[in-house]
Amino acid sequence: MSSQDIPEENLPAEQDAHGAVSVADEQNPFADPGLPPHEHRVQDIDERAAKRSERVVAFLFTLSMLLTVGFIASYVAIPHDKAIFVFPIGHINALNFALGLTLGGALFTIGAGAVHWARTLMSDVEIADERHAIEAPPEVKAKVMADFKDGAKESALGRRKLIRNTMFGALALFPLSGVMLLRDLGPLPGTKLRHTIWSKGKLLVNMNTNLPLRPSDVAVGSLTFAKPEGLEETDEEFQTEIAKAALMIVRLQPDNIKDKRELEWAHEGIVAFSKICTHVGCPISLYEQQTHHVLCPCHQSTFDLSDGARVIFGPAGHALPQLRIGVSDEGYLQALGDFEEPVGPAFWERG
Predict the structure, then answer these.
(1) 139-153 in b/e burial notation, b at 16+ Cβ within 10 A?
(2) Among 121, 123, 101, 114, which Cα is nearest to 171's?
(3) Residue 273's beta-bridge partner residues?
(4) Is the N or C terminus of the chain more exposed, i.e. has fewer CB atoms within 10 Å?
(5) Among the residues of the chain, which ranges form H helices?
(6) Does position 243 have pLDDT exceeding 60, yes or no?
(7) In three state form, how does the secondary structure of 142-162 look?
């Protein structure tokens, strides 16, 4: 239906300011052709057509809400390792496919609804306006506010409540998709960073031989790396646990140990300290026999193992935690408990 098929009295009133039309001549070779006559849309003329467009826009916004809910449901319900066959793509991850389909659909339907609303229900009258200086005088500011109010009125946002409510619903639900993605950050650590799998009675196992250590296996001036009894490299959580539980075993002459607590927690001069640097968590592996210093290879933090493993150089913030050790009835070195402080670098919960 076009405006030619509608009686003149049913047509909306024309807005002026269509731009002045001028004729080209010698003084003005670049004439302003003006704007073509405005062609009314069917929605401007027929309220039933406007209602249909309103329902289409509302349907698209409602579909966006359903797709957002589908995104959340897919994220929770579909296993991350499930695969499906999709022609012609082939076998793909079901979770990725569902998340992409629902998230893309939710965004598309919001955009499609907004575009259809603008093209069928908002005003489409072209208005020519003269350029003006960058600095807006008061009368221009007043005109802008008046135009804004006219635009808000022409959008029919207040009158077409179905569009308004479904749009607000779609825009309110869609951000929940991003909130759900925060789940991938994993569960809160709680107190897990403060504890390791060391406990009273766990034997110290040599990392190289995978055999329990006896005091006689640790010579004076030697550096041995140990792990807790029962922790195997084939375990699923091996890397997570060894990153907190790895030990350095050093044997010193008891007379060379300066720190009283270190001497009490040692066994016949054998001391056990965390291997994890307290700067950024690198494994410490360089030992200087004569000075009893250990050096982190990442940023050169240096610790004195004869004086409570305190920091004597570098960016590390605190000493290496010491593990209290003893000997079991079978004569093997064993832990007498867990570390009394968190191992590794500081973290925001540490107090």
Answers:
(1) eeeeeeeeeeeeeee
(2) 114
(3) 248, 322
(4) C
(5) 42-45, 47-77, 94-120, 138-154, 161-173, 176-181, 238-245, 260-265
(6) yes
(7) HHHHHHHHHHHHHCCCCCCHH
Whole-number Å distance between alpha carbons of 351 and 341: 10
pLDDT band at 251 (very low <50, low <70, confident <90, very high): very high
Which two three-digit tokens encode residue 27? Answer: 């003084």
Tokens of 177: 């998709």
Q: CB count, 10 Å around CB of 175?
A: 10
Residues 19-73: tens digit of each pLDDT: 455 566 777 777 767 677 878 889 888 999 999 999 999 999 999 999 999 999 9
Cβ–Cβ under 8 Å, residues 111 and 63: no
Burial 245-270 (b: 16+ CB within 10 A, else e): bbbbbbbbeeeebebeebbebbbebb
Count, residues in the chain = 351
Q: What is the pLDDT of residues 136-185, one digit of tens each?
A: 788 888 898 998 888 878 877 777 888 888 989 999 998 888 887 777 77
Could you tell me the two tokens for 311?
């920091």
Residues 163/167/168/173 CA torsion (nearest 10 deg)? 140
pTM: 0.51
* Spatial separation of the C-alpha atoms in residues 213 and 123, rounded to whole Å: 84
